[in-house]
Amino acid sequence: MQLQAQETRHTVLLFLIVIVLPLIFYPKNFGVGFDISPILWMILEFLYFGVVLWTINDDPTAKGLSYSLMICFGFRLCAGVGFALLLVLMNGISVGTAFASGLSSYKPAVLLHTLSAPFIMLTILRPLLGMSRQKVKSRFSITPLSESSLTESIQPEQVRHEPEYVSKNPLRGRVIPMQPAVDTFESSPKSFDHAVEHVFELSAVRFCVLLDTEGLPVAYAGDELVHRDVWAPIGRLLSEQVQSTLLRAGNLVLQGFDLSLDTYRLHSVQVCGMWLLVGADRQSEELEKVRISQAVEMIKKTFETKYPDASFQRVPEEYYV
Questions:
Q1: Tell me: the pLDDT tens digits for 166-189?
Q2: Contact 49, 116 (CB under 8 A)
Q3: Helix (H, G, I), strand (E, B) or coil at 107
Q4: Architecture of domain 174-306 in CATH?
Q5: Which of 166, 207, 162 is nearest to 182 (CA)?
């Protein structure tokens, strides 16, 4: 809303400039006093408007282009009328002569109004032509690492091992490995990927990553993949440090935490022994917490469906909001 008001002020200011500027030099015509019929001049004006608008947006709709042409022509007429009224008020010229000068006879003013019309009215014409403002790049975006540099930085000891979960089976010592969630989860709407994408659908959310017990990403959705590689180890480190502090403070168990930074907020929630880490804009008014709570329930149902025999030693989980 503030940006629209600012653009409106700029449009009004430019409109006042183009009707006042010719008044300074009136009645000098600077050698542009060519004689041409009003009908032919109007046709040339529409051709000029069409060329400029087509250049600005090479794929406008016919309806949008027609409305834009009429708006530009209307601006030219309003500027001419405004210039004529100033002539009457400030120079004492008769109404008929003033309106003739503003609309057709005084060519410097007519040329200025015609040439500037599509550019001054661009704010209004943008939605009609199907144009949109270029998205501002995220303030916390990081230059993505090349695939070769990532491959070279991975050492053999960093190869991912699937987390293991203790079974409820009475046979002690039995271990159930967690299988990779590639085929089943990607084809099913109730998957870890579906849960993180559900959170990322909110416009304020910049990335959402689900980390396993080793701090490795299980599912990710975000603006740039580099966030996954950056925040996965950071999320695990933060969780371990906070948990160790709570244990010293009174044997408390961490369920989740919020972290406010200068540009955005971090939300971390423990679910099924894993960690859901979400980065969102500070101006989001914490609306992402509703999506995070829904994602937590989706992850719990997905895990219980895929691994019915797996269990964790954990405290009862509560809603995030």
A1: 444 443 344 444 444 443 334 344
A2: no
A3: helix
A4: 2-Layer Sandwich (3.30)
A5: 162
